[in-house]
Every structure is written in structure tokens, then in C-alpha cells.
Amino acid sequence: MESTLDTVLVALSPEITDENADRLLDAAMQVAGPADATVVLTYVVSGEEFLDAAERLGHEGASRDDADEVLADHETVTHLGARLDERGIDYVVHGAVGQVAEEVIAAAEAEGADQVFVSGRPRSPTGKAVFGSTAQDIILDSPCPVTYVAAQSD
């Protein structure tokens, strides 16, 4: 049985540092580049973060329906997009407003992702039990394989 890799989703949120976003993209490009796969940069923000970003990026009056367009202009996304352009890797931006795990899983399903790349911050076992883990939720509920890229501690 031959399997193909057409779509790779990279999960992003404001909690991921620029350095860790670069590490996450590096891992995704190692897979997407040789497979000639499209990378879906999926940036998820809360409602308040969306309104702040829309205003700051010149999209006053934008609604959740405009999330792709607004978040495509976000600094993190434009930086990662430029890196993908340099490598000749096709990409699209999927912006979303809501809970990160839920939106990433929904995007993976909607985009037909073959693999998801996610990062997270180191936490104690007690912290995970009390607060949960977004990365863990994505790993457990994703419709496709997930690659976890450990975050560098500050």
C-alpha cells in the first residue's frame, strides 16, 4: 500500500515563541519539502486576541469569517511564510478563533491533513493534570498522525 503525503498542518498560537515556531516549521519542512506537500499554517487565537490583531494589522471591523485574511498578516505567519517561500514549499494560511486544540483538529479535518506538527511548553505532571495539555488533546483527537516538537525552554 502506497501512502502519499499531500498536506502538512503546522499548529500555531500566540503562546508559541518565535524561536519555537521556527523549530516547528523546520521539522515540518523536513517532511513537506521532499514530499512536495502543501503546508497549512494554522494560527489560532482567542476572540480578544483576534480583535486586537485585526485592529493592529489594519483590518478594523473584521469578523471571525475573515480570520484567514487577518491572521495571514500576523508577524509570525508572514515570517514563516517567507521561510517557506525561500524553500519553494507551497503553503496556505488557515486562521481560526477559538480553543487551540479544537480549532487545530477541525482544520486538520477540513484541510485533509496527512500529518500535524505541534509544539508545547514543558510542564510538570501536576500542571498537566490540573490545566490539561493542548498538545496532548491534539495528539489524542487528531484525524491523522501528529509530530510533537519539544519547545526550547526560556
Automatic annotation (TrEMBL):
It comes from the Archaea. SUPFAM superfamilies: Adenine nucleotide alpha hydrolases-like (SSF52402). Residues 6-149 form the UspA domain. Gene3D superfamilies: HUPs. Transmembrane segments: none annotated. Pfam families: Usp. This is Universal stress protein. The lineage of its organism: Archaea, Methanobacteriati, Methanobacteriota, Stenosarchaea group, Halobacteria.
